Amino acid sequence: MSKTQDYIERAENVILHTYNRYPIVLEKGEGVYLEDAEGKKYLDFAAGIAVFALGYGNKKYNEALKAQMDQIIHTSNLYYNIPAVEAGEKLLKACGMSRVFFTNSGTEAIEGAIKAARKYAYNKDGSTDHEIIAMNHSFHGRSMGALSVTGNPHYQEAFKPLMGGVKFADFNDLESVKRQVSEKTCAILLETVQGEGGIYPADPTFLAGVKQICEERDILLILDEIQCGMGRTGEMFAWQGYAVEPDIMTCAKALGCGIPVGAFVLNEKTAKASLVPGDHGTTYGGNPLACAAVSKVFDLFEEEKVIEHVRKITPYFEKKLDELVGTYKFLTARRGKGLMQGLVVEGRPVGEIITKALENGLIVISAGSNVLRFVPPLIITEEQIDEMIEKLKKSF
Ligand SMILES: *Cc1c(COP(=O)(O)O)cnc(C)c1O
Questions:
Q1: Residue 179's pLDDT is what?
Q2: Cα(226) to centroid(ligand 1), Å
Q3: Is 208 within 8 Å of 242 (Cβ atoms)?
Q4: Whose C-alpha lies nearest to ligand 1, atom 5?
Q5: What is the pLDDT of residues 3-43, one digit of tens each?
Q6: Residue 266, SS3 per DSSP
Q7: Where are the extended beta strands (E) located within 157-245?
Q8: Whose CA is nearest to atom 10 of ligand 1?
Q9: Most buried by CB count within 10 Å: which residue of 111, 182, 196, 272?
Q10: 228: pLDDT confidence band, cut at 50, 70 and 90?
Q11: In this structure, how many other beta carbons lie within 10 angstroms of the beta carbon of residue 132?
Q12: SS3 of 73, please?
């Protein structure tokens, strides 16, 4: 039996089967390449689902984590710790917001954002029936709160009753948002670029319109930047390309570049009038190891000019993808921003293309029901884009 077969069999005997996994065991990574247990190499255009922005095995990142391990890994939130202060300062500087709460995942960042929004509204009028407007085809996580604002009935059905007070509107349809707004609305929640739903960037007029509704009625705008944030679209946070500021922002995925960490970030108005001691907590959240990762990620983004690189490489990437759309009939459109791109596939199962690509040593993933999703490490080069295109063509 191969090492791969052995581990897959053992995995299925211990790990709850909640994922239909591709039959490879990934063992190591270097730059933008991964290697499986058989020594086969893959060019990685998924980055662990938009996580490994800096590529695998970045020496400076690894050294920073090792140094922090030797110093201290965990302290609890009953005390202050140094990496959390540094990571918080760098994150706030990057977004110009006021206060951060570190979490262990994106889902928990969403939970915190929901609680902050509800508390803000509660402080204003003392009522306990506030509503949140979320978007159809959104994705915000799988815990009961995050699932309740995830606009995908298929994910929700078996787990009802969900959290109440959630209404859904159509993304990029301002009228449908307006129809859901009421005296009870405390927040409007959306991804600046919808990821799992199929790579849909917000229209500038839509986002500006939502912001205007929020300002007129003192409703909080929550932007989920978990997937589209951290430089992926060519801005540190995607909303910075729209000149629309959120009241609350959620981050995760590339925030720690592989260490499980997320955050929800509040602007001054929200920070001043929402969560107070006793309202929210976490044992691990903001621990020294996770925050050392966040802190180093921000340093490396600056040192290695990651965002400038994303801006420079994007036109080439878009051109290459557009050429594919021009060449293959079953590719009907390209959508996306920066290094968060999707190709719409009609009349052919996306899963088949992904499986073929794996055989050809290329990792790509899907989004929605018919979109090939590209969220590579942000350090990708033109040569590697060419290599990806060749492997993809072979897989078609
Ligand atoms: C991945 C994702 C989440 C959930 O984050 P986890 O770290 O998996 O809990 C939430 N929102 C968006 C937009 C995501 O892409």
A1: 98
A2: 6
A3: yes
A4: 106
A5: 999 999 999 999 999 999 999 999 999 999 999 999 999 99
A6: strand
A7: 166-169, 185-191, 193-194, 200-201, 220-224
A8: 140
A9: 111
A10: very high
A11: 27
A12: coil
In Å, how far from its chain's centre is CA 235?
14
Ligand 1 atom 6, closest CA:
106
Q: Do residues 44 and 376 make contact, with C-beta atoms less than 8 angstroms apart? A: yes
Which residue minimizes the CA distance to atom 15 of ligand 1?
Answer: 227
Residue type, 56: Y
Instruction: Count helices and strands (H / E) in the chain.
Output: 14, 17
124 and 270 in contact (C-beta within 8 Å)?
Answer: no
Compute the residue count for the chain.
396
CA distances from 43 to 38, 230, 268 (A): 15, 22, 42
The CA angle 337-324-315, to the nearest 5 degrees, is 35
Q: In the beta sheet, which residues pair with residue 363? A: 44
Q: CA of 309: how far to CAs of 5, 99, 234, 367, in Å?
A: 39, 29, 8, 25
Which one-letter DSSP state was computed for residue 202?
P
| Closest approach atom of ligand 1 to CA 253 | 7
* Cβ of residue 107 lying under 6 Å from some atom of ligand 1: yes
Give the number of other Cβ atoms within 10 Å of residue 155's Cβ: 14
Residues 159, 215: contact at Cβ < 8 Å? no
The CA-atom distances, in angstroms, between 321 and each of 40, 128, 315, 385, 389 are 26, 49, 10, 10, 8
Amino acid (one-letter) located at 34: L
- Give the H or E element holding residue 212: helix 204-217
Please give the mean pLDDT across all residues of the chain.
Answer: 98
